[in-house]
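EI: anyone free to look at a 255-residue chain?
SC: sure, send it
EI:
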Amino acid sequence: MPKVLEESPVLLQQALDERTYLLRLKAAQIARQVKPGQFVHIKQIGDGTSLLRHPFGVARADKTQGTVDIIYRVVGEFTRTLCTLTSADCLSLLGPLGRGFDLSVGGKALLVGGGTGLAPLLFLASHLGPDKTDVLMGGRTKDELFWQALYRPFVHHMFMTTDDGSLGTPGTVMALLPSLLCKGYERVYVCGPSPMMQAAAHACETHHIECQVSLERYMACGLGACLSCTCKGREKRLKVCTDGPVFWSREVSAW
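SC: here you go
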């Protein structure tokens, strides 16, 4: 699939909670090509202070409107800049990049995510169809589970956990996942903090259920050249930006 470099005007900047935003960009060529699980590399036009781009998973793409959505949390200098952008601004997008989710596996699916790891899973949910897709989402408090409204059109059941017990089952997603895996799911897709993904993958292996994980790594180039995002695989060293970011859990040995 050819990579595209687009100058992308900002169409929408929407606050989802105090630190999390939805950013909608006009990127018609990327919107036509991008698959669930792939990412885009973003740079602010006119930024002469940094040569590096920043990777963001795609939360949604509309081929008809030619738009790409990302959902990000303000955690550093670049995202602090992102949240100040308006419709007068434009970003440079490179994409689509990486290997996305394998959609050839049929059957009932469970999506498992925490934090902004729920963003690429949202794009996946829109492709799988609500009749055979459920989601298990975790957050520290109920305020972090604004994701419910975003997922509602695309899934059948939503299961929730919170660290403080303010919504759903108290604890992390692992407080609920083992019991859910007994309910006939044929595939599980996971994205979120590394310890959560590792625990979820192990639970799926125990229940003999196929699992795909979307790894989150710092990616300096996004093209497999700089080797900043490598991780240890069971058979070889893996480049997360090009071999992934989505892997079958059995491919990964170090999280």
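EI: The chain has a mean pLDDT of 93.
SC: 👍
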